Amino acid sequence: MVLLQVYCNTCDKKVQAKVLERFESQYHIRLEGTYGDEPTKCYFRYGLVQILPHKKSLLKSCTNTSQFKTVVESDKTNMDGVLVEP
Ligand SMILES: [Zn+2]
C-alpha cells in the first residue's frame, strides 16, 4: 500500500491517503534554465487517492474518507511535504 500526504477537502488538515490508482498519462514540463543553463525537465503524474480516517481535532474525528484525483508522483513538494505540480 502506497501512502502519501494530501490535504483533506473537509477539514483542510494535512492527512495520509492511500494511492488507489496511478493514471497512465504522465506530464513533462520543461523549465527554462537561467542564462547558460540547460532547461530542466520535470514530471508529475495524477492518480486517485483515498483519504485515511483521521482526527479533525483532539476529540473530534473527521468523517471524510473520500476519493479524489491529485498529484501522486512529482519532482516537487510544497512546504508541508505534499506533492504538487512542478
Ligand atoms: Zn479531514
Report on the structure:
The protein is mainly β and 86 residues long. Helices cover 0% and strands 59% of the residues. It has no helices and eight strands. The protein has a four-stranded antiparallel beta sheet, with no helix packed on it. Strand 2 (14-31) and strand 3 form a beta hairpin. The protein is elongated and about 55 Å long. The two termini are 25 Å apart. 9% of the residues are buried.
Tag the structure with descriptive keywords:
single chain, about 90 residues, mainly beta, 4-stranded antiparallel sheet, two-stranded antiparallel sheet, binds zinc ion
Count of discrete alpha- or pi-helical segments spanning 4 or more residues: 0
Major sheet = 4 strands, antiparallel
Helix/strand/pairing category: mainly beta
Which H/E pattern describes the elements? EEEEEEEE
Could you outline the blueprint of secondary structure elements for this entry?
Layout: E1 3-7, E2 14-31, E3 40-51, E4 54-55, E5 61-62, E6 67-74, E7 76-77, E8 83-84
Antiparallel strand pairs: 1-2, 2-3, 3-6, 4-5, 7-8
The chain binds zinc ion.
The site of zinc ion has 9 residues, from loops.
